[in-house]
Amino acid sequence: MAQTTARDVALRALHTWRTSRRSADEIFAELIAKTELSSSDRAFVLELFYGVLRNLLLLDFWIGALRSGNVDVDLRDILQLGLYQLLIAQVAEHAAVNETVELAPRRARGVANAILREAIRQRAKLENDAANQPLFLRTSHPEFLVARWQKHFGSEATEQLCRWNNQPPSLYARINSLKIDMEDFERRYPDARQTSAKNFVEFSHTFPAAALDAGHCYIQDPSTRLACEVLAPKRGERILDACAAPGGKTSYIAELMQNEGEVLAVDRQSPRLKMVEENLARLGVTIAQTLQHDWKHGPISSIEKFDRILVDAPCSNTGVMRRRVDVRWRLRPNEFTRMQQEQLSILRAVAPLLKDNGVLVYSTCSLELEENREAIDALQKEMSILRLMEENESLPFRDGFDGAYVAKLIKTA
Ligand SMILES: C[S@@+](CC[C@H](N)C(=O)[O-])C[C@H]1O[C@@H](n2cnc3c(N)ncnc32)[C@H](O)[C@@H]1O
């Protein structure tokens, strides 16, 4: 039996992504678990699969320039994979062509081979034509999204944002001071580099498995710290983390409280709560409990009120598109108002659980007004006892980390 190659797995991943509603991350994790590949081959699958998804529009533009006739979906997958290697990843030409053409059904090999070789001959023209296309096409983003961002952020920031979304993400981790201090961490894991965010480090190639297993750090972008730091939980307080899974912020909240007090971590999805429990156990968090609850069904009944509540709401994820590579292709123009309704339904159910003078922090990893400031405006219109105290945001093109929005409200007595 022929050995499975990285290109083969990447092609299967693309096919599954195109024919299902599943996320790229889920597909990648499942395929990798089922296949025996070396770590460098796994990294190559990731680069090919995510690289094609990040560049879909541009690759289709090139396919259109190279072939006027019909291109069926299976041939398109092969061509996208081949052109990505040739024109974007700069993989050696003979391997990119020969090994990709091998993956095509026998009847399509001649066409695939001819198109990829033509791409090599026309490389300069294809690159030049691409550079003259509008931003949405040359950086492969939905046109409506780029138009929104241009209106909101301006042309220059939008160009930077689109480029940012197409870069492989940096590898960041938060040092878990419940288990280790920065000095000791740096001594044990010398690959770690400090970042401008206190307690966050960056790794060049891969995360040290030993550090993750020991709970010495948690994989997290520095932008995620904002919500917890604005929440500013104190030792001995009672905190609700209303949308907790997989537990990145719950564990940071417990760390800020030095493991003294109570944290209730709620989520609607049981399997994801299991991840929270595993993460908290590994990170040495002893003050958190988990509870499954869907806020769409209203508040939790008969429960003691909280000093502070974090609502890290489900959102469109437009601030984390360099990590969630396929998000852009699943978005529709009405997504942001639809998400706002979902976010408000959670906030409505959570707000009555806050003590008088308590703090409510609302956060998203979206860049869209509807899910951020406008959601907070709508909430305050309904509940005037909630007063907006501060707003904070992380913008990739300004701050160099993922996008995030944070609003702090106080419940007036
Ligand atoms: C952005 S994620 C939270 C990330 C988490 N705070 C962290 O830092 O690891 C949003 C979470 O909200 C949960 N969620 C979405 N709608 C919900 C609802 N109606 N009730 C409870 N949880 C909900 C999702 O299952 C998801 O785990």
Written description of the protein model:
By secondary structure, the protein is an alpha/beta fold. It has 4 domains: 6-133, Orthogonal Bundle (N-utilizing Substance Protein B Homolog, Chain A); 143-167; 168-219, Alpha-Beta Plaits; 221-411, Rossmann fold, CATH 3.40.50.150. It contains 20 helices and 11 strands. It has helices at residues 6-19, 24-34, 39-54, 56-66, 73-88, 93-101, 109-121, 123-131, 135-138, 143-153, 155-165, 182-188, 209-213, 225-231, 248-256, 270-282, 327-330, 335-350, 373-382, 396-399, and strands at 171-175, 193-194, 200-203, 217-219, 238-241, 262-267, 288-292, 306-312, 354-364, 386-394, 404-411. It has a 7-stranded mixed beta sheet with strand order 7-6-5-8-9-11-10, sandwiched between helices. A 4-stranded antiparallel beta sheet has the order 2-3-1-4, covered by helices on one side. Helix 3 crosses helix 5, helix 5 runs antiparallel to helix 6 (93-101) and helix 10 packs across helix 11. The model has no long low-confidence stretch (mean pLDDT 96). The site of S-adenosylmethionine has 18 residues, from helix 15.
Q: What is the fold's blueprint, element by element?
A:
Layout: H1 6-19, H2 24-34, H3 39-54, H4 56-66, H5 73-88, H6 93-101, H7 109-121, H8 123-131, H9 135-138, H10 143-153, H11 155-165, E1 171-175, H12 182-188, E2 193-194, E3 200-203, H13 209-213, E4 217-219, H14 225-231, E5 238-241, H15 248-256, E6 262-267, H16 270-282, E7 288-292, E8 306-312, H17 327-330, H18 335-350, E9 354-364, H19 373-382, E10 386-394, H20 396-399, E11 404-411
Parallel strand pairs: 5-6, 5-8, 6-7, 8-9
Antiparallel strand pairs: 1-3, 1-4, 2-3, 9-11, 10-11
Helix pairs in contact: 1-2, 1-3, 1-5, 3-5, 4-5, 5-6, 5-7, 6-7, 10-11, 14-15, 18-19
Bound molecules: S-adenosylmethionine (SAM).
S-adenosylmethionine (SAM) is lined by residues 224, 243-249, 267-269, 272, 294-296, 312, 314, 346.
